[in-house]
Amino acid sequence: MSEWLRAANGRATLTLHIQPGARKTEIAGPHGDALKIRLAAPPVDGKANTALIGFIAGRLGLAKSAVTLISGQTSRRKTLEVAGAPADAETRLLG
């Protein structure tokens, strides 16, 4: 398992580095101990955070309510908690 993904008891914690205002939303790959994600949404009024949650939920095949932003509301470095994360979460995110 990667440094940016920790899983236990049906939950996963993701450490992410976000680049808002990108041309398109995509996963860029590892960035130190985090996973870098480019978001098309601007970092205004929480739009990037909302887009990030929707993007991660979609890649994992979960409802948006299963993904919670637990730190980094106004930072590029964010930590998400995913309830009911699938066993192949790393593959789904990188694939």
Secondary-structure map:
Elements: E1 5-8, E2 11-19, E3 26-31, E4 34-38, H1 47-60, E5 67-71, E6 77-83, H2 89-94
Parallel strand pairs: 2-4
Antiparallel strand pairs: 1-2, 2-6, 3-4, 5-6
Describe the structure in your own words.
This protein is an alpha+beta fold. The protein has a single domain (5-94), classed as YggU-like (Conserved Hypothetical Protein Mth637, Chain: A), CATH 3.30.1200.10. Helices cover 21% and strands 38% of the residues. It contains 2 helices and 6 strands, in the order ββββαββα. The protein has helices spanning 47-60, 89-94; strands at 5-8, 11-19, 26-31, 34-38, 67-71, 77-83. Strands 1, 2, 3, 4, 5 and 6 form a 6-stranded mixed sheet that branches. Strand 1 and strand 2 (11-19) form a beta hairpin. The protein is globular and about 35 Å long. The two termini are 15 Å apart. The mean pLDDT is 95.
Distance between the termini: 15 Å
Could you tell me the radius of gyration in angstroms?
12 Å
Which blocks of ≥5 consecutive residues have pLDDT under 50?
none
Please give the number of β-strands. Answer: 6
| CATH architecture label | 2-Layer Sandwich
Using the coordinates above, name the CATH class.
Alpha Beta
Tally of individual helices? 2
Oligomer: single chain
Instruction: Tell me the name of the CATH homologous superfamily.
Output: YggU-like
SSE order:
EEEEHEEH
